From TrEMBL, chain A:
The gene is PARD6G. Belongs to the PAR6 family. Its main location: other. PROSITE patterns: PB1, PDZ. Pfam families: PB1 (PF00564), PDZ (PF00595). This is Par-6 family cell polarity regulator gamma.
Length: 366, 1063
């Protein structure tokens, strides 16, 4: 155990040019390494994989777990290159026979935990319709989506931004401003929050769904009316893992057209009608927006429970994103002393997710 | 899941009622010294003192516990205050020349201060000439004449107006203009010059018709108001500063701007005096500063006191703040550390007495109040029972210890007494003793600890309304600091003229900023405490009743460990004194641990039962066994990219670096633009074009709006390694069957480290100390909060959802033992959300995302017990939380349901928010100024507020049937609040009220809505609804109907849109 611990430590070191590859086919694991800077051709890799696993039929699909825990395919030189270069610290490769392979299991969130039932229910309709195969859509992960089109006024747009990892910022700025609202007392000027500018290359700009001077009405189901700029900023940052903003776009020409009405000729009463009427919100509750994506990471230290009492987490795969998760070595000596008092065999004290991925050193759970 | 959500939305009426019984928000009392005092008054009959401030606050103090607070509607400086003797009424003059009459009014037996009337001098009085500029109408001085029925107002223009005090109306036709006075002057003195503003007005103690008027030019006039004629004229020629009229009217003392004073005596024969009998410049012959105020007090034992402020030699001591006390041949120059605002003597004011016989001198300074006992030889200072200058050195941290055991309390008090021995006589000679405190003896003793910049920790009695200093602990003695003040003191002693005497304790200068105290923790059962400072020093101290001489063991802990590539660029660590050191009785240091690098300690915690102290800095945290004096653990929390933490004191370096960078950029930019312009300047046409272009677009440049970047926290944010909290708990970390000692640490980047500790267990339960043996720490869990917000607090809850008791609490039967059967849970409060995790699995159980929902961030958090007002033994443990917007939220534990929230501090008041400290029983303190703590309570039952009464005698004719809206009582820091009627007096109206309007009690006590307001109203606001007429109701209905119609239209529109969609 000690030996492999050290080995993985050195291999996971950043500047090391070797990338540790852990390949899984069925219940079998194989380990080998690749050069990070010169990974070679996909063809060679494919052959290598087939060879190391001794797969007779050469019809397999190869996938890998990216830093966000998503299962992405390796089927050409480009994504192979990407897989190797982004391996952090080790590249986990999953091999399936093509006939067994489920086409739909690539993509975002496939390796992470199951969604809440309700969220899944709500998304079901969308998902069913989304299964049009247009030139391998599974190479992509969602970056943003327009949601709740059916329950929002036409003048508003609810945008969900999916942030993956920490590298790409959400990338927009907000400011204070004044907007016109229809109130019981007539037309009134009320303070509002507006998008002031976009960071070039940021997530928000790349979606094309948010634009400068769009008025922000809600953040994850909470109205921003009456809140200060700093408060709204904090709300957005606190929800940045799964940010859902409802905006009134400054440019109303690209709105979703419903019921055959022409764009731009939205009914005057709902034009600038401010916060949507309460009934609009009822199937979108703020608490529903809580996704489990922000589940905190718990690293079991050396003093894990003596016997693993539970199986693998629902996702089946542990997720290692970010360097902060690299297991730190406990204080020398004390760990062994303590472990030896607990169990004769220290290896048994580690959490080994049943049927999951074998890990060296302290295990990761979600 | 659905059920869960629905329950959250619905409001349970039973729970609502319970909430009202548990929670109520009150700002109760302000502790400490009023910030920026500007005026002083004393009522010798009631023996109460008033202090006015520059923010318009009025505070009245009597005996300890007797306090009244009022706030003027406008935040204008209170320039003068005068008590109407014996009436409990106060006339204040603001710098906008408005006069306000305040009254101490009894509601249900408790007294409050309320503003009764206000008055603004008309800018164009009839006869003073319509062309009088407004500045001439500025009121310079106020004098109450004829037992407070009438007030004389001296103005800048030289006129004296007379005012009826009870109604605050101008008495027409009695005004004394400067012309009237000039008429009785000899021509050669007049010589066409104006008299200048009225500088001083003095009344005669025995003859209320006479008024002594002093004009700025130097002229003194005794005016007989009854006869409306000039009795005496003293032709002074030196610019006048102040006047004092002797008790028998035979001496007039005047002080002047050149540092001289003169004594005049009105001769019986002539009405004109050309020369004073005595004129001296006490600190001459070189030019002196003005004597701002002078008092002349005669004594029965012969001689007199002359007390004056200022008058120091301009060149040598012009910057000193001095009050000189002269009696016969004895002169003492009291040398203060801050500016003198005003002073008064406590002396006999009964007209029949022959002598003043001053007992005490009270000097109000900018930063403190000093009272000297004038009857004891040597004029010693009298320790003040309240108005303590909290900020004698700047407060750097504070902590509250509730339920202090009586034994420890007595030991701290005795240590404090040994520290500053008080003569028995002066303890009783505090002269301001008016009023009675009705507050019950506090049921438990609360100790407030404040850490200061100079390395001291002060212990305050925070049990009651008056914050009393108990003991002062100095840590500076352990270290070698750069400057030793012994020589500077010796130097001062060499100069014997003027005879300076240092008075007061305000000393804002710190010898060494590294001595500053950052964190304090006290164990109330073992009297051990830990004090941690700016240079990474962690001191473990123990209370000892006897002085001793011993060596303090020193250890250092390297928190960086084997991290490479970091060099510390900040201050060096303090060098401790070695060898045997003498220590006075009190808290004596035992062990000193120094962190490396010596960054400021950001978190500290002490477990006396285990003999462990944990400390954290911006680099990591350490665990130290102070019993065996050996380090147990050191852990670096720095992120590899975090370089800023290494550059020393955090904020300063960062901002300096930033500003430097910005200024370089600015320079570069200006150079670049300068070049461009030079290139363009070839032809005039181009230049003109450029100018046009520049003019066309300045809007875009200047109108850059305030904007905020939406950028999630990333792992390599700077200062992510700062350790924010440390916590010890006996809980289940390894498995659900065995509990044991654990240590928890939370960092700025949302990481939580949990260590299992191996602490040798005492064989017998009764033994105090744990047996010798190694303590070991093993990392058990590491939690990374995904939102990466700083971890503010960690607490472990037992099986019943209650926080674990403090060390020794359970073993000594002082608290209920924790439930070790049910599953424990850990509550982790980050800046953005609260989460409860089960133990030992650390899986999320409940959470509340405060920032995601409300947009505010958590600043301070505490678990507090809230007792119910309705049920004697019902109490709940809740989480009290202060946000960056200054709001206080209360959440249930462990359900994390929001209970109540109140706005407490202005959100701009960053230092107030940063200084907030919660107590264990639902109260809290925060600094409203450098010198004042505001006390608030969230509990409906546990309220510490001044309840006091004052024996007021109003003249019979003073009762007026004034009907007005009761003003909202407000706190001096400008936040209005509701003072609830005390429960004990509920339903038992004062018998005086029932007698009718002809009693001496004011009418408004009965009519005020105050008495209607019940103690259980949680967050209602007082509304002073008048009579509701039919018209009002109609209006109301009409407007609501209209809005309803509008709403319906909107809804219909929406419905139509939906219908179209369905089609």
């Amino acid at each position: 155990m000690n030996r492999s611990f050290h080995k993985s430590q050195t291999l996971r070191f950043y500047d090391c040019s070797a990338v540790e590859v852990k390949s899984k086919f069925g219940a079998e694991f194989r380990r080998f390494s690749l050069d990070r800077h010169k990974p070679g051709k996909f063809e060679d890799f494919y052959k290598l994989v087939v060879h190391t696993h001794r797969i007779s039929s050469s019809d397999v699909t190869i996938g890998y777990a990216d830093v966000h825990g998503d299962l992405l395919p390796i089927n050409n030189d480009d994504n192979f290159c990407k897989a190797v270069s982004s391996a952090n610290p080790l590249l986990r490769v999953f091999i399936q026979k093509r006939e067994e392979a489920d086409h739909y299991n690539f993509g975002a969130g496939t390796l992470s935990r199951k969604k809440k039932v309700l969220v899944a229910l709500r998304d079901e309709g969308l998902r069913r319709r989304a299964h049009l195969d247009i030139s391998m859509p599974h190479d992509f992960r969602p970056v943003s989506s327009v949601i709740d089109v059916d329950i929002l006024p036409e003048t508003h747009r609810r945008v969900r931004l999916y942030r993956h990892g920490c590298e790409k910022p959400l990338g927009f700025y907000i400011r204070d401003g004044v907007s016109m609202r229809v109130t019981p007392h007539g037309l009134e000027k009320v303070p509002g929050i507006f998008i002031s500018r976009m960071v070039p290359g940021g997530l928000a700009e790349s979606t094309g769904l948010l634009a400068v001077n769009d008025e922000v009405l809600e953040v994850n189901g909470i109205e921003v009316a009456g809140k200060t700029l700093d408060q709204v900023t904090d709300m957005m940052i606190a929800n940045s893992h799964n940010l859902i903003v409802t905006v009134k776009p400054a440019n109303q020409r690209n709105n979703v057209v419903r019921g055959g009405r022409a764009p731009g000729s939205a009914c005057p009463s709902s034009e600038g009608a401010g916060p949507p009427a309460p009934h609009v919100l009822q199937n979108f509750h703020p608490y529903e927006a809580e996704s489990d994506e922000d589940a905190d990471i718990v690293i079991e230290g050396a003093v894990a429970p003596p016997a693993p009492t539970r199986g693998a987490p629902p996702g089946g795969l542990a997720r290692a994103n970010g360097t902060s998760l690299v297991p730190r070595r406990p204080r020398d000596g004390s760990i062994h002393r303590l472990l030896s008092t607990l169990q004769p065999d220290p290896r048994h004290s580690l959490v080994l997710p049943r049927g999951g991925v074998e890990e060296h050193g302290p295990a990761l759970t979600l | 899941m659905m059920k869960f959500r629905f329950r959250r939305q619905g409001a349970d009426p039973q729970r609502e009622k319970l909430k009202q019984e548990l929670f109520a928000f009150n700002k109760t009392v302000e502790h400490g010294f009023p910030n920026q005092p500007s005026a002083l008054a004393f009522d010798p009959e009631l023996r109460i003192m008033a202090i006015g401030t520059r923010s318009g606050a009025v505070k009245i103090y009597g005996a300890p516990g007797v306090e009244f607070t009022g706030l003027h509607r406008d935040t204008a400086t209170v320039t003068q205050m005068h008590f109407l003797p014996g009436q409990g009424r106060l006339l204040t003059l603001l710098d906008d020349s408005s006069l306000h009459l305040w009254e101490i009014i009894h509601h249900n037996g408790c007294a409050h201060l309320e503003e009764a009337l206000s008055f603004q001098l008309p800018s164009r009085p009839g006869f003073d000439g319509a062309s009088a500029p407004p500045s001439l109408m500025r009121v310079t001085v106020v004098l109450l004449v004829a037992a407070g029925d009438m007030a004389a107002l001296g103005t800048e223009g030289g006129s004296v107006f007379f005012l009826d005090v009870t109604t605050l109306t101008l008495l027409e036709g009695q005004t004394l203009g400067p012309d009237e006075v000039l008429r009785s002057l000899p021509d050669d003195y007049r010589c066409g010059k104006a008299l200048g503003p009225v500088e001083s007005l003095q009344g005669h103690l025995r003859d209320p018709t006479k008024i002594l008027i002093g004009y700025s030019r130097g002229l003194l006039v005794i005016w007989n108001q009854a006869a409306r004629c000039v009795d005496h004229v003293f032709l002074g020629n030196q610019q006048l500063e102040s006047l004092c009229w002797g008790r028998d009217g035979s001496t007039v003392t005047s002080s002047h701007s050149d540092g001289s004073y003169a004594v005049w005596s009105p001769e019986v024969g002539s009405s004109l005096a050309l020369q004073p009998t005595v004129a001296t410049t006490p600190y001459g012959p070189f030019p002196c500063k003005a004597i701002n105020k002078i008092l002349w007090r005669n004594c029965e034992s012969g001689g007199h006191f002359i007390i004056f402020s200022g008058g120091m030699p301009r060149a040598s001591y012009g910057d000193r703040h001095c009050v000189s006390v002269l009696r016969a041949e004895v002169l003492v120059t009291l040398d203060f550390t801050s500016r003198i605002i005003d002073f008064f003597t406590v002396h006999s004011t009964r007209p029949e007495d022959e002598y003043d016989d001053p007992q005490a001198l009270a000097v109000l300074l900018e930063e403190e109040l000093v009272v000297l006992d004038l009857q004891t030889p040597g004029w010693p200072a009298v320790p003040a029972p309240y108005l303590a200058p909290l900020h004698s050195s700047a407060i750097t941290c504070s902590a509250h210890v509730a339920n202090v055991p009586a034994k420890l309390w007595a030991r701290i008090v005795s240590a404090g007494e040994q520290q500053s021995p008080q003569p028995a006589s002066s303890a009783s000679s505090w002269p301001i003793t008016g009023g009675r405190s009705l507050a019950q003896e506090p049921s438990q003793r609360g100790l407030l600890l404040t850490g200061h910049e100079d390395g001291t920790v002060r212990f305050w009695d925070a049990s009651g309304v008056a914050l009393r200093p108990l003991y002062k602990l100095s840590t500076a003695g352990l270290f070698q600091t750069d400057c030793e003040h012994a020589d500077s003191l010796a130097q001062a002693a060499e100069d014997d003229w003027p005879p300076f005497r240092k008075v007061g304790c305000f000393d804002p200068y710190s010898d060494d900023p590294r001595l500053g105290v950052q964190k304090v923790s006290l164990c109330k059962y073992t009297a051990q405490m830990v004090v941690a400072g700016t240079a990474g020093q962690v001191l473990v101290l123990e209370l000892s009743d006897v002085p001793s001489e011993h060596v303090v063991s020193v250890a250092s802990v390297d928190l960086l460990q084997d991290r490479e590539g970091f060099t510390w660029k900040g201050h060096e660590r303090l060098s401790p004194r070695t060898g045997l050191l003498p220590w006075a009785a009190g808290f004596q240091p035992r062990v000193l641990v120094q962190c490396l690098p010596p960054a400021a300690v950001t978190a500290v915690t002490l477990h006396t039962e285990w003999g462990l102290v944990a400390f954290g800095t911006s680099h990591g945290f350490g665990l130290f066994d102070y019993q065996r004096k050996s380090p147990v653990l050191a852990r670096c929390t720095l992120h590899p990219n975090d370089s800023l933490a290494m550059e020393g004191p955090l904020s300063r370096v960062k901002s300096l670096k930033k500003s430097l960078r910005q200024s370089f950029r600015r320079i570069r930019k200006s150079r670049v633009s300068g070049k461009k312009r030079a290139a363009n300047a070839n032809s005039k046409l181009q230049e003109a074009n450029a100018q046009l272009a520049e003019q066309a677009c300045p809007h875009d440049v200047e109108m850059t709006p305030v904007q905020r970047r939406i950028e999630p926290r990333s792992a390599d944010d700077s200062l992510s390694g700062v350790v924010r909290c440390l916590y010890f708990a006996d809980t289940f970390l390894r498995d659900a069957a065995h509990h044991g000692p654990t240590m928890w640490a939370g960092t700025n980047s949302g990481s939580v480290f949990a260590y299992a500790l191996e602490v040798p267990v005492a064989a017998g339960a009764g033994s105090e100390k744990r047996p010798e043996g190694m303590v070991e720490a093993v990392l058990g869990k590491e939690v990374q909060l995904m939102h990466r917000a700083p971890v503010v607090a960690i607490a472990v809850l037992d099986g019943r959802g209650r926080p674990l008791p403090e060390p020794y609490e359970a073993s000594r039967d002082l608290a209920q033992a924790p439930d070790m059967q049910g599953g424990h849970a850990v509550l982790i409060a980050s800046e953005e959300q609260f989460k409860v995790f089960t133990l030992p699995k650390v899986s999320a159980k409940t959470k509340f995302k405060l920032t995601a929902h409300e947009g505010c961030r958590v600043r301070k958090v505490a678990l507090a017990t809230f007792a119910s007002v309705a049920c004697e033994d019902y109490a709940e443990t809740c989480l009290a939380c202060l946000t960056n917007l200054g709001d206080v939220h209360v959440f249930s534990v462990p359900g994390l349901r929001p209970q109540v929230h109140y706005s407490c501090i202005r959100k701009e008041d960053i230092s107030g928010i940063a200084s907030c400290v919660f107590t264990r029983h639902g109260q809290g303190f925060y600094l409203i100024s450098p010198s004042e703590f505001e006390r608030f309570s969230l509990s409906a039952r546990n309220i510490t507020e001044p309840l006091c009464s004052l024996d007021i005698s109003w003249p019979r004719n003073a009762t007026r049937a004034r009907l007005r809206e009761s003003p909202k009582l407000s706190q001096a820091n400008g936040t209005p609040s509701i003072i609830l009627a005390p429960q004990s007096c509920d339903g038992s109206p004062d018998p005086a009220h029932s007698k009718g309007t002809d009693t001496s009690e004011p009418l408004e006590a009965v009519l005020s809505p105050m008495s209607v307001d019940s103690a259980t109203s949680a967050d209602t606001t007082l509304d002073t609804t008048g009579d509701v007429t039919v018209e009002d109701v109609k209006d109301f209905l009409g407007s609501s109907e209209e809005s309803e119609k509008n709403l319906r239209n909107l809804v219909e529109d929406e419905a139509r849109a939906c219908a179209i969609l369905i089609k």
